[in-house]
Every structure is written in C-alpha cells, then in structure tokens.
Amino acid sequence: MFTRARFLTFAIALAGVGVFELLALPLPFLFGPMFACLLAALLGLRMQGAGEISVAARTVLGVAVGASITPAILGQVPLMAITLALIPVYVAVIGLIGVPFFQRVCGFDRMTSYYAAMPGGFQDMVLFGQEAGANPRALSLIHATRVLVIVTLVPILLTGPFGLSLDQPIGAPARDVPLWDMALMVVIALIGWKGGVRIGLFGAAILGPLILAMALSLGGILQHRPPAEAIMAAQFFIGMGIGMQFRGVTLRELRHDVAAGAAFAVILAALAGVFTWLAYKIGGAPMLEAFLSFAPGGQAEMTVLAIVAGADLGFIVIHHLMRLVVVITGAPIMARLIWGKAK
User: Which of 155, 302, 321, 329 is the most exposed place for a label (fewest CB within 10 A)?
Assistant: First the structure.
C-alpha cells in the first residue's frame, strides 16, 4: 500500500539521488538515499520503508554474484585456504575486543555487549540477541551504525589509497541483455528467495538467488548478470534502508548507542586493516580483494562496493559467506556457553 509516509520516504530518497548526481558525488544511488533518509530520520520525519520491495531488491545482488561465479573461480577456492582460515581468527579477535568494549567501556549488559560485537548479519544478530535477553533496540542502532560507518569509510579508502574512481560498469544496459536471460533471472530471484525463506536459509533474499544463479552459471545456462538498471535500483533500496534504521532515535540513543556503534566501527576498520595486510602478505590475496573481503559491512553493501570497484566478486563473497557462517552458527553456541558460566 502506497501511504503518505511511504511516498514521502521515496521522495526524500530520490531527492538524495538528485543532490548527489548534481554535485557529482560517488555512488549517488547508494549514498544519496542513505544520507537523505538518515537526515530525515534524525529530523524526526515520519517515514515508511518499501516493505517486500526492499527485500526483493536484494535478490538482484544474489543473482549478480551467482552469475559471476564460474568454474575458474571455484577452481581458485583451494588457493584461498589461508585467507579463509583467517576468517574464524578475525571473528574471534573481534569478539575478544568488542565484548569488553561494549560491556566495560559503554556500560551495556553482557548479552547486548556480546551480540553488539558479533560482525554478523544485522537481522540475525538482533534476533539472536533478543532471544538471549539482549536489548534489541540498542542492537539495531549499533549494527545499523556499524554498517553506515563502514559503507561510508570503504569508498573513501577505495578512492584514496587504492586510487579507484568507483565508476566501473556495474552491468550492461537492459537493452543489451537478452529477454531470455532477463526472464530467467527473474525466475531465479523469486524461486531462490522464496525457496530460501521456506527452508530457513539465513539471508535468503541474497543467498537463495545466489546459490541458484551459481548452479545455472556453472552449468552454462545463465550467461549474463542483471542489467545496470536493476543493480542501481538495488543500491537505491539498500541505501534507503540503511538511513531509515535511525527512525525515532532519541538524543540519549545518539549519545550512547549510536556513539558506541560508531566508535566500534572505527575499531573494526583498524582490525580489518590488519587482517587485510595478513591476507595480502601471508595468503597472497590481491590487496583490493583482501580489503573488501575483510571489511565488516553488510553482505549486500559490500557486494555493491565490489561491483563498482571492479573487484573479483567470487573471491569477496566467498569470504563474507565464511564470516557469516562462522558468526551465525557459532555465536548462539558461544552465547549459551557464556550464559552457562554466568550461572
């Protein structure tokens, strides 16, 4: 249903795109909606998200990644053994630093501190934390701030030390993609998404289409990525969603929860730098791919940045999937062990 609040939200997001385009700022379809909706949220404007449309937009990225995974990329997986082995170590170090930071420095309770420190999927960490007795509102703001800060910092670093322009082609125009492939990608997106939800797959909107698209790509059936227009639309809804996470934020929450999330995001950025160097020196990974693989942002956001940077999508996504698997499967188990010790 297209309500007045939803219309206002779309208008704000589109205005953000327009301002970024006018000022020739990078990633207008991602950053324009993100910062415009963030400003509107901080001003207390009543906004409403796009609901299932925003979720559906993520399927575009799943199909894009899956279509980019070829037999040649899969053949390189054994060569990634060292860098993939660094992921569990990376997650453990984040936890060892993050939990004391949130508990002793920021004053959060034990379980909120634990799930605030875990660099997993936004929704999964809030859900797991809520089930364990953590503060879901604080977790939402902390993880939203983490994603916001990392997504802002990464392009600055890409255009600075890496010297990239972030204007790599994100896909062929829709007019150049065969209708058969367009139709096939729509089917892949819908079946992968809804099928993933039905079987309880975490991050189903991205991972379901990714798995299905990868299978068809490896079989030589799917030979194109989604068109540029679809990827720009995905950026738009992702950016809008990040900014809207701050709806209803109070001054106290800004000073405490958001500030804690921002400070921890800077700590994470420093840790990511250390592990990027290790992956480059020890694992022999290309510096750009290593950097984007260990950047602790959301999977969808890192996928977008990898596309616009012209990086190896397969390499980066495999490492982010490893991080998510380690966190999502390991975090609840470790939380129960910690809880048991506390008893």
Answer: 329
Closest by CA to 108, choosing from 128, 131, 127, 136, is 136
pLDDT tens digits, residue range 309-326? 888 888 898 898 889 888
What's the DSSP call for residue 135? Answer: -
Residue 134, phi-psi category: left (phi > 0), alpha (psi -120 to 50), beta (remainder): beta
Rounded to whole angstroms, the Cα distance separating 216 from 343 reads 50
pLDDT digits (tens, 9 = 90+) for 179-200: 999 999 999 999 999 999 999 8
Rg (CA), the chain: 20
Residue 219 CA to residue 261 CA, distance in Å, equals: 43
* Per-residue tokens: 157: 């670093």
Helix, strand, coil shares of the chain, percent, nearest 5, are: 75, 0, 25
- DSSP 8-state secondary structure symbol assigned to residue 143: H
Give the integer Cα–Cα distance in Å for 292 and 43.
33
CA angle 96, 100, 103 (to 5 degrees): 145
Residue 210 identity: L
